[in-house]
Design goal:
The chain has 336 residues and is of the alpha/beta class. The chain has helices at 15-25, 44-58, 81-84, 106-116, 129-137, 167-171, 173-182, 192-195, 202-211, 214-234, 242-251, 297-308, 313-323; strands at 5-11, 30-37, 65-67, 103-104, 120-124, 145-151, 187-190, 199-200, 239-240, 256-265, 275-278, 289-295. The termini are far apart. The relative contact order is 0.14.
Length: 336
């Protein structure tokens, strides 16, 4: 039996997208058919350069990269360079490797790959513009899609771009709305309800820094800007790393739990980009989404750190036990 999972990763790197790509590249059960880049955190050209920087860190010039849409379906692009830095990687100044190349035509690559593969999934870590364009252009190709996991939206959590909207769907609500309405199979929505629980705390960043190798320096350096942003914006110590949870959930769905619900994306007015999750079936519509509501933070961190930094399992487990202590009931309660 072939246990590898074939996947296209659509992304807008972005600091947390880069961490998600690292997790994917360190996951032997994933066969990455290609990486497609969409506008979002940064303009598409910069996003492509950042994918190349991550691939260079891994010596993986064999993974094809495709440049996608330059702007949302029907509005101006608003980037998140305040969050990710002008270069999208925390203004770290990593060189773009010149021996790696980017192909044009992410949308056609998505369509052709879906048409010719039986068992392929998409993990979308940015606005859904590329996916919506492919679905509009060739809906039949999506019959072969096994699973769409998207980082985006929120159910009960507040937004991160407006009181109610999450960035990826807020940047291109028309694309997100089109995909939710037309994909015709449940979308796995890894939204802010679960990703807000995935915080790379200062303790964890210090641990990573102690590992003292190329990957650990890269993570330490790119997260500095992100940590400052989180403190200034929401007084969070550390940084919320949304996108790696979508990859981790794709690898191991037991990391999250959720509800099946019809979900729509608001496209107009002050709530643009909001996901409206009909958890109680008011609209009597067949659920089009699995909306994730719970996640096991410690299990995620265990996977993430061990995969990026193999051979350090015991020190990782020791630190995670300190940060996420388990409570044991002794004589009716309390901790030992
Ligand atoms: C999402 O928005 C982006 O800034 C992150 O990369 C993530 O995909 C979180 O709202
Ligand atoms: Ca992203």
């Amino acid at each position: 039996m072939n246990s590898t999972k074939k996947v296209i990763i659509d992304c807008d790197p972005g600091i947390d997208d880069s961490l998600a790509l690292m997790l994917a590249l360190d996951s032997p059960e994933l066969e990455i058919a290609g990486i497609t880049v969409v506008c979002g955190n940064v303009p598409t050209k910069l996003g492509c350069e950042n994918v190349l920087k991550v691939l260079n860190l891994y010596g993986r010039e064999d993974v094809p990269v495709y440049r996608g849409e330059e702007k949302p379906l029907s509005r101006m692009l608003v980037t998140a360079q305040d969050t990710h830095g002008m270069d999208g990687l925390g203004e770290t100044g990593y060189e773009v490797p010149d021996d790696f190349s980017v192909n044009e035509g992410a949308v056609d690559f998505l369509i052709e790959t879906l048409k010719t593969s039986q068992d392929i999934s998409i993990i979308a870590l940015g606005p859904l513009t590329n996916i919506a364009c492919a679905l509009k252009k060739c809906p039949e190709a999506f019959k072969n899609l096994k699973m769409l996991v998207t980082m985006g939206g929120s159910y009960k959590s507040h937004g991160n771009c407006s009181p109610v909207a999450e960035f990826n769907y807020w940047v291109d609500p028309e694309a997100a709305g089109f995909v939710y309405e037309n994909l015709k199979r449940p979308i796995h929505m890894v939204g802010l309800d679960v990703t807000r629980k995935i915080v790379l705390t200062p303790d964890l960043i210090s641990l990573i820094c102690r590992f003292d190798d190329r990957k650990s320096w890269f993570v330490t350096e790119i997260t500095k800007f992100y940590v400052d942003f989180h403190w200034n914006q929401e007084q969070i110590l550390g940084c919320v790393i949304n996108d790696p949870l979508a990859v981790a959930y794709f690898i191991d769905p037991s990391l999250c739990e959720g509800i099946d619900a019809y979900t729509a994306v608001e496209t107009e007015g002050m709530c643009a980009g909001q996901t409206v999750v009909d958890a109680y079936g008011f609209w009597k519509k067949t659920p089009n989404a699995k909306v994730l509501t719970e996640t096991d933070t410690k299990a995620f961190m265990t996977m993430f750190l061990n995969r990026l930094f193999p051979g350090r399992a015991s020190v990782i487990s020791k630190q995670l036990d300190t940060i996420y202590p388990s409570f044991c009931k002794v004589n009716g309660g309390g901790c030992r």
